[in-house]
Amino acid sequence: MQIYLLLFRIFYRIFCLLPVKPVTLFWVTYGDNVKPINDALLTAFPKEKRYLVYDRKFVKCAERWATEDRLPYRRLRFIRLAYLLATSKHIFIDNYIGEFSVAPIRKGTQRVQLWHAAGTLKQFGLSSSRSLLVSKRTRKRFKHVYQRYGDFIVPGEPCATQFLAPHDLPKTVFKPFGVPRTDYWFDEQHQEIKEQLKNAYQQVGRRIILYAPTYREHDGMEGQTVHQLERLTDQGWTILVKLHPTVRSAFMHQMEHIHFVTDEYSINDYLLITDVLVTDYSSIPFESCLLEIPTILYTPDINTYRQLPGIIESYPDPLPVVATDRIETVFDWISSDRALDDSRIAMRNFKMFWYAETPGQATQRIIEFYYPETTN
């Protein structure tokens, strides 16, 4: 790793001697929170050259970005990566980029972090228990990366406050523009997707539970939970199971009203037809609150998860949700229409607290801020 970063640093410095070009670089892991920016540029600023560096594990249809070039991330491409980073005027990212530790932000360029979550219930970054196990040198490298993210886009000030300590950043770098990947919920674009999913999963007289557990490094309990939730299928519920992209459950319980959904549609697509969300330590409720979906956190392994990677001390706050490690509590809550109504109201109020600006216009705000020439 040290040799790789040394080589990257050398070539980055060399390429910084070249002129900055009117190019936008998207360097992404997941991509879904960045692609709306790419799509908007394609429409509003078609002369802008765009390049995509992506993780092929998560970005499955890179050709849909319609960029000048698309490069699956590989360290062997470090010369090309260093060149693009050094000479692109705008750089958008959505995750930790280790190469930033040796690549200070060049004058005349702009980096923008569109983090892949709109809030957190987990400890991460410098606040995680894992960070305490690494050397001081490694922690210093982490900090260098964080300090070179550039602007950090968040829903609002409460989210910025959450992200301060994990990244050791000042509040001034945070911009409360919103979450681009949720914009389509508020225009006509979502209607076709919603109809497709309704036709696939909705049935007369049945409501939909979306069970979306988060990533676990230890053996998860997803299979056991699905088996327990099976009871609800006799009470008029259809259960959609959406596993984290990094999770591959060995337990694939099949039943008429239980569906393990694929990556053909995103989690945000499935939320469009969701009546109740069951999750755990996931950041999904920080976005699904925009749809006012009743939500409960089921955490049978909370004692293990509290140790590694760790959860925030205030868990489940700031979310106004019920959190339990008892499946009977989940059943009672889901079976109570009053509880569901109360949760829906709570999520509506939380939305107004967590988001500083009107939902549905995050992409537009970002384009207008970083590409003012498109509005002239």
General description of the model:
This protein has 376 residues and is α/β, with parallel strands linked by helices. The protein folds into 2 domains: 2-182 and 360-375, Rossmann fold (3-Layer(aba) Sandwich), CATH 3.40.50; 188-354, CDP-glycerol glycerophosphotransferase, C-terminal domain (Rossmann fold). Helix content is 34%, strand content 15%. The chain has a 7-stranded parallel sheet with strand order 3-2-1-4-5-6-7, with helices on one face. It has a 6-stranded parallel sheet with strand order 10-9-8-11-12-13. Helix 4 links the parallel strand 5 (110-113) and strand 6 (151-153). Helix 1 packs across helix 3. It starts with a helix and ends in a 6-residue tail after the last helix. The mean pLDDT is 93.
